[in-house]
Design goal:
Elements (H helix, E strand, L loop, with lengths): L11 E3 L5 E10 L5 E7 L5 E5 L3 E4 L2 E4 L2 H29 L4 H55 L5 H30 L5 E4 L2 E4 L2
Parallel strand pairs: 1-6
Antiparallel strand pairs: 1-2, 2-3, 3-4, 5-6, 7-8
Helix pairs in contact: 1-2, 1-3, 2-3
């Protein structure tokens, strides 16, 4: 969102799956008036400061986008563009060998960029692994609650409607976890592009 978009103060904030996160309390702005962070009242979890770029206004609801997804999208865009430029550079040199010296200058620039992106990639993958571990732990907790509910219904401690509510909500949460895990694996695998090292250059195969 930009500073010219509609006011978000007082609006509900939900995650990508529709679960309520909280309500926008207010914003912190830079000296030029641009919004830096948004304060979200998360009830018993307190006030959370969320980066403005992680929020998207959709009708009357503010959607919270996880930082890992924004980082992955930005990384894939940058690496994809860098790789395409390297391929274009290779094509130019192959068509006109006399431009090799000129191309080498630009090549060094792209090589440095790829080295930086490789470091970013390593950091993002580490964060992915941490989040996948958190999802796995939370999945176990939800399944434990669901199984215990089955025991409670069998022992006539809870009613059928209560059990069905627990079952429906548990399955919805597990489905969200599964979807997020797929996004994490997909974002990770999207960078597993075949490559070959040519004289110190990390060039993507065509």
């Amino acid at each position: 969102m930009t500073k010219n978009e509609p006011d978000i103060v007082g609006r509900q904030v939900k995650d990508m799956y529709g679960t309520l996160v909280g309500k926008v309390l207010g914003t912190l702005t830079d000296i030029d008036g641009s919004i830096q962070t948004v304060g979200v009242d998360c009830g018993s979890e307190g006030l959370k400061q969320i980066q403005y770029e992680q929020l998207v206004l959709q009708e009357d609801i503010v959607i919270y986008i996880p930082k890992w997804r924004l980082q992955a999208q930005k990384f894939l865009r940058e690496k994809g563009l860098t790789v395409r430029r390297i391929n274009a550079l290779e094509d130019i040199v192959s068509e006109n060998g006399q431009m090799k010296d000129d191309a080498e200058i630009i090549h060094n620039k792209y090589k440095s960029k790829l080295a930086t992106l490789d470091q970013i990639e390593s950091k993002i993958k580490s964060e992915f692994l941490v989040r996948l571990g958190e999802i796995e732990d939370q999945e176990k907790m939800v399944k434990e609650i669901l199984f215990d509910a089955k025991v409670q219904i069998k022992s006539e401690e809870i009613s059928e409607p209560t059990f069905e509510t627990i079952k429906m909500n548990a399955n919805n949460i597990l489905e969200r976890f599964s979807h997020e895990s797929c996004l994490l694996y997909t974002s990770d695998a999207a960078d597993d592009t075949p490559c070959v090292d040519l004289g110190g250059r990390r060039i993507i195969k065509k």
